[in-house]
Amino acid sequence: MCFVFSVKIMRSCGLQFNNILLLLYKTVIYITHFLFVSSLFTLNLLLFAKQLSLIYYLCHWFTILR
Fold first, then answer.
1. What sign for the dihedral angle of Cα 49, 52, 54, 56?
2. For the chain, what is the mean pLDDT?
3. Could you give the CA distance from residue 28 to residue 16 in angstroms, rounded to a whole number?
4. C-alpha angle 34/40/46, rounded to 5°?
5. Where are the domains of the chain?
């Protein structure tokens, strides 16, 4: 109901409905792309921290074995 009302407001304001849909579509694509890239970035950070902790533990064990 609210969506139909907003469409009527958009048409009465002179905005084309197709342009609004295209804008919404592009916005959703940009948001999902940003979320995907940020999740990849945090995944890379987690893997990097895991590698650092592994290197730290290896060095720790080598110093104990000496």
1. negative
2. 76
3. 19
4. 135
5. 2-65
Q: From residue 42, give the alpha-carbon distance in Å to each of 6, 48, 50, 52.
A: 38, 10, 12, 15
Q: To which residue do tokens 């197709």 refer?
A: 18
- SS3 labels along 15-61: CCHHHHHHHHHHHHHHHHHHHHHHHHHHHHHHHHHHHHHHHHHHHHH
Is pTM beyond 0.70 here?
no
Take residue 25 and report the two structure tokens written for it: 């579509």
* Dist CA 22 CA 48 (whole Å): 39
User: What's the pLDDT score for residue 1?
Assistant: 47
CA distances from residue 43 to 4, 36, 38, 48, 49 in whole angstroms, order as listed: 41, 10, 8, 9, 10
